[in-house]
Structures are given as C-alpha cells and as structure tokens.
Amino acid sequence: MSKYPYLFQPLTIRGVTYRNRIFSAPCAMTFSGHSHTPDPMQMLYFESKAIGGAAAVTVSETCVNLKYATRKNNTGNVAILAENQMGNFEWIKEAFMINRHGAVPSVQLHHAGAATHPKFLEGRNPIGPDDYIREDGVHVTGMDEALMQECCDDFARAAKFMKDCGFKMVQIHGAHGWLLAQFLSPLTNHRTDEYGGSIENRARFPLRVCKAMREAVGENFVLEFRISGDEHIEGGITVEDVCKFAQMAEEYIDIIHISAGSYYTSNLYTFPGIFVKHACNLEIAKEVKKHVTKMKVALVGALQDPVEMNRIIKDGEADILYMARQILADPETPNKWRTGREKDVVPCCRCMNCLGRFDKGEMGCDVNPNIGHELLNLNNFPAPKASRKVLVIGGGPAGLKAAMTAAERGHQVTLVEKENVLGGTVNYLTHDCHKQDLIRFKDFLISKVYEYGVDVKLNTDATVELIESMKPDYVICAVGSEPVIPPIPGLKENSMTAKQLYTYTGEIGDRVILIGGGLSGAEMGLSYAELGHHVTVIEMMDKIAAQANHIHGPAIEETMLRLRDNITCLTKTKCLSVGKGYVEVQGPDGNVYKIEGDFIINCLGQRPRKALAEELRKADVPMFETVGDCYELAQVRGAVQSGYFRALDIR
C-alpha cells in the first residue's frame, strides 16, 4: 500500500477516471511550429509526464483563434486546426501520446483579450471588457454583443474539436489577467451595463462561455475553470467573488482550479518562487471548497511535499493537486512517491529559470538536463562499451552531477574535493533563508553520489601529480569559481565573501551593507531584510538584479517593495573604499559620502578558476574535460547540464 493513500486514491468525474489526485499543470517548454501543431519535442515532453505517473497532463495555453486570442506568434495554438485542417484528427490524437500511458489528456484553452498586441493580431486592435487606450498607446476595443458571441463560439468550437481529437478534458483559462479574468476582476472591468459592477454581472460573460462549451461537448466530457483566487493587488478579485463565481459555474463546470496573481500585476504569486511559501494558495482553496457542493476543487502553487499533499486530500481541503515545476524537475515524481522512492525525487529549486527564460528560447530546467533536449535522448548516448576509470575534480553541482551520472552508467568514479564537505558554492547559501529548495537539490546530488558508490575523497587538493598517480581514463575538471575581489581599498580586510560567511559564527548586527546588487546580492539582501536586519545594497549599474529572468526579476522587485522598511537599494552608486564599519561611495550625482554598517558583505560576483583548470590539464591522461564554472560562469543550470552531458559522453 502507498504511504500516501489519499493522494493516490482514484477519482471519477463524468465517467473519466483519474488514477490519482496529482495532475500535471499547464507548463510548456517549447513553441509549436508555424502550422500551429505540436512539434516532436512537445510530444515527447508531454508524454514524459504521462509516463511519470501524473493522473492528468494538461497541454498549455492553446489559443481559441488567431484573430484576437493569441498573445505571441506560434503560442502552442492547436485549436486553430478546427478551422482549416479538419482531416488531421488522427494525427492530433497521437500527438501528445498521453492517453496510452494511463493519464487523462487535457488541454488549456486560452484567450489573451486586452493583454495582447496588434503585432500578433495582423494589425487588429485587441479586445476586452473596456474600450480604452493602454499606457503603450494601443487601443483596446470594448467587446459588444457580436464580439462576445464570436468569442463564445470560438471557445465552444475549440472545446468540441479537442474532444474529437481524443482529449477527455478541457481547462478554461480564466486566471492570470487573460480575457475571462479581465471580465471577472473589478480592476479590469469598468463596464456599466449588465456585464459590469457586481460579481453576478462580471461573471455573466465567462458563464456564457462555460455554457456554450458545455453545450458543445455534451455531458460526457470534463470541463475545468482556472481562476485567480486572489490577484494580490488592490482592487482585484476577492476570495468572496471567487466563491460566488464557483457556485454560479457549478451548472457547467466540474473542477474549479485555484491559482493566484496575474501576469500583469503580480509575478510573485502567479509563479510562486522562493519568496512565497509552499502550498501558498491552500487557504483560498479551502474557502472555495466550503461553498460548492458537486464541483471539485483543484489547487496549484508550489506543492512539493507528499506528506502535506496527502493530508490536504484526507482533510477535504481540496480534491485535486496540480504540480507544474516539480514535474518539470522530475516527471517521475508521482511514480516515485507512490512506490516509496521519495529520496530519488529530484527536487525543484523554484529558480524560475524554466518559464523565466522560455521567451528567450532558453527552454530547460536547472535541475533536469533532459528538459528542452527531448530529441537528444539516450539513443544518442548508448551504453558505454566498457567500465572506465573516471576522476572528477570538484564537488560542486557540476562535479556532483558528472560523478553520479558516470557511476550510474557503470563507470568506476573517484571524486576529489579540496574542502571538507561536498556542495561547492551552494553551501555558501546557507545564510539565505529563501534558498532552502536549492539546498535540498544540493543534498539530493550528494546523496546520489554516495548511493552510486562514488569514491569520495574530501580535503584533497588536485594536482598534476595526483591525477597521474590515479591513472584515470577520463578526467572531468569541475574546480568552479572564486570570489571577485577588485582593488577597492579596504575591501578585502573589512568585508566578507559568501564563502567566508559560510563558516562565520559571530554576530551580524542590525545594519548590513552588501557591495554588489546583482542577482546574488539582491537575493542575499532580501534574505537579511526578511530576517529583520536593515540592509543597504550598493550597485554601480542602474538596475538591481539586472541578470534575473523576466519572472524572477519582478518577484525580486515585489519582495523589495514588501520589505521596503528594511532594505534600501542604491543604484548608479560606486564603492570607493571600505573601512571598519563603513563604506565610502560616490552617488549618481557625483557626491561622495559614507554609509555606516555593522556588517559588510562582498557580493561582487565570481570568476572562473581558469588558471587552475589549465594547470591540471597538463596531466598526462587520455581525456580531460572541463565542466561548470571553471571556464565560464554557468550558474546551476549550466553546471548541471555540462556535468551530465560530459558524463554521458564517456564511452
């Protein structure tokens, strides 16, 4: 029997049986082609989630038309085929290969409404509840009855098409600031007719859409409505409104899916990252659950703990639990939980580098190197011809991933690490109260290295002589990076690096100064502010955390706003010198002044240990490869991917 009997209890809705309560949330990692049909990588990506044990797998953000609904070019739009490729049903039925693995195939239908741009609509103005001119000068056309009916017809036709394609469920996207959410939220709906004002009026058009879709698909088909239970902005939709809407929608909708936030108001809650607690939307779901009778309540939002998830189902606080990024990090998560292999689950570190880099074409996952490389599967990396003797130098994420991968494939692996612990630079994050998920991933890598029988030698400096004495067939050099210490007077003597902080046990004091406001400096500053210190971040550039992705960056800004009483960011400000208890700076106006503090931290970044890597390369060995930060700063994703793929290369 499973340790989580409630989590793995089947559920049947309208004759559709779900094998457990874990659903894979809509979360794409690739764009469709110009034909608006799924490409091979998409198919394999969604199939992996079904193989991994999720009860339902949701294909994300499929627009109901190209006339008004799409928000960007080629945005996963499959429903448009209903208009021009009716004969292609059989191909689409097999496209996502979900059903054959026991999971229920679902698809999210989407309309961007006022949030799109004419450049994606062949020059047409976007449409929405209100007629107005946006801040960017775009004219949004307020929807009249004809446009509303056209939109209802589009949703209904798309839903019927998906049913005919073999999907057993449709998720209606009514959250995150898209068209139906624009009608539901008083923040974006200022109509004075029967479609504006009270929640009953604001819900009128979304309910028309739901009714049209139910009529199109009939009774033996599951409809789900995703809604922001709280937009987390003044004037947005309230929990009370959501409960009333759920009651009104029960006639047509089988599942109410509780999310939060909006792409245009709060990335912090739309994509709950390290600054938001796990299961962050649970209280909203519990409240909605009290107000519905036959509708099932689904919950999403940083769910990663099977014990807590099992309890939520057991206590009736929700009926269905959605995971997005955890199933991205490890598609096998449901199967591993079900069979008691929790320690084998690769934990999501909530870095937001998956969705946050998606728009740049950097599709992937920091902890799962296979995501975004589905076509480069193990057929391209056949089993090794023999067991090789492999030496890995360095026990950071790159070295750990390389060592565990090589050992798992049958090689004899030795890992040498000059420190007395494994983990590399991730160890230096123990002072950051927001980095516990990343530390969990580091601990996972370490546990796997030992589980796979890697011979770990701590407190061991790698030298050319040591390498040659071990006579390895293959050397993977992962010596990492070191702190940047520029020639600022007093910096080295009067500040600490993150590495020095790792072993520091003294007092921090109330006033903390961080020199450097890049990503690491901003995150560390927020951590100290969260813990109650008064923090000053000094940054030469005109923006804090400039290298953060487009989701994590706004989340940092929102968190800084929340903690504004405890943190001050000085941009365009140059550090001139560091003394005992102060930093001398030059502000953007050219004036020079001192900032007093109790504790000063150097957050000026890291630089690769190229010289060390080149020295070790002199060893007389058959193969020598570098991975991770020792040649180019790679962050966690680059470190993990380089270690993984170099280990796969060992023949």
Q: Within the largest sheet, what's the order of strands?
A: 3-4-5-9-10-11-12-13
The geometry reads as: globular
Radius of gyration: 27 Å
The number of helices is: 22
Mean pLDDT: 92
Question: How is this fold's topology laid out?
Answer:
Elements: E1 11-13, E2 16-18, E3 22-24, H1 40-51, E4 56-63, H2 81-84, H3 89-95, E5 104-110, E6 127-128, E7 132-133, E8 139-142, H4 145-165, E9 169-174, H5 179-184, H6 199-202, H7 204-217, E10 222-228, H8 239-249, E11 255-259, H9 267-270, H10 282-291, E12 296-299, H11 306-314, E13 320-323, H12 325-329, H13 333-338, E14 389-393, H14 397-408, E15 412-416, H15 436-451, E16 455-457, H16 464-470, E17 474-477, E18 481-483, H17 491-494, H18 498-502, E19 511-515, H19 519-530, E20 534-538, H20 552-562, E21 567-570, E22 574-579, E23 582-586, E24 592-596, E25 599-602, E26 606-608, H21 610-616, E27 624-626, H22 635-648
Parallel strand pairs: 3-4, 3-13, 4-5, 5-9, 6-8, 9-10, 10-11, 11-12, 12-13, 14-15, 14-17, 15-16, 17-27, 19-20, 19-25, 20-21
Antiparallel strand pairs: 1-2, 7-8, 18-26, 22-23, 23-24
